[in-house]
Fold this sequence. Notes:
The chain is of the alpha+beta class. Helix content is 52%, strand content 16%. It is built from 19 helices and 13 strands. Strands 7, 8, 9, 10, 11, 12 and 13 form a seven-stranded mixed β-sheet that branches. The structure holds adenosine-5'-diphosphate (ADP). Adenosine-5'-diphosphate binds at residues 456-457, 460, 483, 485-486, 488, 496, 501-503, 508, 513-519, 542.
Amino acid sequence: MKLLAPVAPRWYARLNDATLVTGLLIVLGYVWLGFASQQLSQDSPLSINPVSAALAGLAVLYGLIGYRVLSKRVSLLAGLISFLLLSSSVGTLVFTTGGLESQYLVLWVVVALFSAMFGWLTLILTWTLTNGYFLLAALGTISTTLSQPELITHLIVLELPFLTSFFLWYGQNEQGDDAKLDESVGASDIRQGMLINSIAEGVMVIDEQSRIQVFNPAAASVTGWKSEDAKGIDFTSVLPLYDAKGQPIPAEKHPIRQVFARAETVADNDARLKTRSNKIIELSLVASPITNKNGGVVAVVAVFRDVSAERSQERQRAEFISTASHEMRTPVAAIEGYLALAMNNNVSKIDSKAREYLEKAHSSTQHLGKLFQDLLTAAKSEDGRLQNVPRVVEIGAYLDQLVEDIKFAAEKRGLIMEYNSGADNAVAGSTSLRPLMYAHVDPERVREVITNLFDNAVKYTPEGKVSVALNADEQNLMISVSDTGPGISQEDIPHLFQKFYRVDNTATRQIGGTGLGLFISRKIVEMNDGKIWVESELNKGSSFHISLPRLSQDKADMLLKQEAAKETPLAGVSGNVEI
Length: 579
Ligand code: ADP
């Protein structure tokens, strides 16, 4: 047992319960004795002194509010204050109601039982106080009516709770920091401290009360918090996260809190952490639940590392790709232009062999131009430079026009083209009254996405049908592009929207592509607060869906008014302008 050592936080909570109940009993006793019909005289052995009643009131208040607030940060101190309030209110009560003869002496047993909870310091202090009082009474310095044998009986009876307290708490705080971990977590496993301490990634274990119980040296070096400072306090103080825009991530959205709520592993690769020295670093974090037999989360293990250097390298690479593709796009466009001129009968004369070669060169140059364009868009979408200017768009009319523009590509390849314009959502019996379906999106960007999905459907479908459909409910609008092509296997689906991912099969190998189209599409859809996903079955076909948040008519009207006011800034004040 140490001079002052912590025990598991749940024990402090039990002590606080005891303080609360004892305090409440004293306060109620005070009120009852004061107002009950049998008003007691000042020197009655039961009468409760206002000072001890006030101290008990303070203990109740602290137990209800103060402890709850403080214990989230410093559980040892919170428990210690609880103990001081318990001992001082009971001590004053016993002292003012006859000391050793007090009817309330039994409450001191509660104090004695908790006295070794904090280590030697509180045990010795409480024990010395009790025995010192006895000694003074035995020596006659403090007057007492108790006889010598009665005094000895009292002494023996009061020594017992101190002895019990010693054995009760000895094991608890002897285990040191590990004892703080809830038993159900499996303290013995976690006690493999050497293992955790030698892991290069930051490792943190958080208990049900959101307090950090394990904090390895790597966690200390990432966060800037010393292990002894971090342990026992709320994890949000040590791991405050921010989003890419520099806004603090609210506590309920914190990945660790989400693990407690959802009982499943949560990974966050884009979080930013404010270290103790207020430096913002980029963090990769995986938090997993530790569950009990019933599947309840009893703790969370968070493993994290500083990825600032890696991210900076990635940014440099992306910067290089973006500059290079930007620079190369210009000459490629020039080559494409000159090739087109060379093939134009009005400006140049070439023989049929040369035309054949030039056509091949032209198509390859177009492919190269598309690759540079896609590389540039992908790089911009990653570093936040991709422009997205949302406007109110009536998706029904917008899609009608878009399908009109792109359908020729399907027809040129001999594919059947189908379009379901969302008229199903119309008021019953009428096709012309399709409800207006508004969304707040960048029409140019969404056009890129739909065109890309459509081009893929046409590109990968040798024969059959390509269809576009619009569906809506109150909250969302869903645009689907489906085909009767080769389909995509279930193993490939999770990777499809990643950068440069192309399904490895003969069809894809023969058909040109960059593997960037779906990545860019996902980025654009996410920028517009939407979702993109695919449903597919091999040899049957694929359906790519985009869902976008639907604007209510009122919201759309309001935003349309704002847009109109922005476009004609004087419109709103024209009435006041004197001509
Ligand atoms: P790419 O330039 O290769 O078409 P995308 O990112 O647009 O790149 O698509 C990624 C991969 O997804 C493609 O290589 C292809 O294998 C698969 N894919 C996309 N759309 C379809 C589709 N409609 N049918 C079958 N496979 C598809």
